[in-house]
Amino acid sequence: MQRRLGQDRIILLGTGFGSTIATRMAIADPALYSAYVGAGQIVSPRADRERFGYERLKARATAAGDQESLAQLRISGPWPFRAPRDPAKVAAFVKVARKYHAPNPPHQTWDVLTAPHWSLADALAVTPGMRASEAAFGRAWGERFDYASLGPDFQIPVFVIQGDDNTDAPLPLARAWLDRIHAPTKALVVIPGAGNHGLQTHSRAFLAALQAHVRPVATAAP
Questions:
Q1: Taking a C-beta distance cutoff of 8 angstroms, is the pair 121, 14 a contact?
Q2: CA 76/CA 175 separation, integer angstroms
Q3: How far apart are the first and last CA of the chain?
Q4: How far is it, in rounded angstroms, from Cα 35 to Cα 9?
C-alpha cells in the first residue's frame, strides 16, 4: 500500500473485528503509519457486546411501551446465537432487532460489485476468505482474542469514528477503551444515528470526520 500510494507512512483504518488486528499492527509497527483510525472499534469479548445489544433493545422497547417486543426478548435472552442455537430464541431476537435496528446499506451486494477499487475476483473472494479465516483461527477466535493487547501505549495518533447506534461495537465500550489508552493525540468522533455499517450508510459524515480530525494530524506527521 505504501508503494501504491507513494507514501512512506499511511493512515491505518480498521473496521469491525478487523479493528482488533489493525490496532495490534499500529502498536507493533508505528513507523509505518501516520495515524490509526478505528471505525466500529471492537475492544471487548462477544458476550459483553451481545449483552449490550440486548439491553439496548430492551431499553428501546421499554421506552416505546412495546410489550410485544419485551415478551420476545424474554424468550430470546441476551445470547440467542450461542451454540446450541434454539431457533425460537433466534427468531424472537431477530424480530425485535429488525424493528429497532440502525440503517443498513440497502444494496450491499451491488455496492461490492460496482466498487471502483474492487474487481469481480475480489468480490467473489469475500466468502471463501471468510471461510479461510474461520478455518485458520477457529470459530471461537473472537472469544479467545487477547483484548488486553489492544493498548495501552500507542506511538501514533489514535482516532475512533463510531456510530452511536452500533451494536457490534458499542460506543460506550469504545469510549472507555479510548479513555484508557495513551497516544500523542486521540479523539472520539460520534456519528449520530449510525449503526454497524456507519461507514457505508453515513459515508459523508465519515469522510467529513476524516478530513476534519485525521487529515490535519496525519499530514503534519514527520
A1: no
A2: 28
A3: 19
A4: 9
| Exposed/middle/buried for residue 134 (C-beta within 10 Å: 0-12, 13-18, 19+) | exposed
Q: Which residues pair with 158 in a beta bridge?
A: 36, 186
Q: Which amino acid is at 20?
A: T
Beta-strand ranges (E) seen in 41-172 are 158-163
Helix axes 46-63, 171-180, angle to 10 degrees: 130
What pTM does this model have? 0.88
Is the distance from CB of 12 to CB of 19 less than 8 angstroms?
A: no
Question: Could you tell me the residue ranges of all domains in the chain?
Answer: 2-45+145-220, 48-99, 106-144
DSSP bridge partners of 161: 39, 189
Choose which CATH entry (2.60.120.260, 3.90.1310.10, 3.10.20.90, 3.40.50.1820) describes domain 2-45+145-220.
3.40.50.1820
The pairing of strands 158-163 and 186-191 is parallel
Give the chain's mean pLDDT.
91
pLDDT in tens, 81-131: 888 889 999 999 999 999 998 888 888 788 888 888 888 898 889 889 888
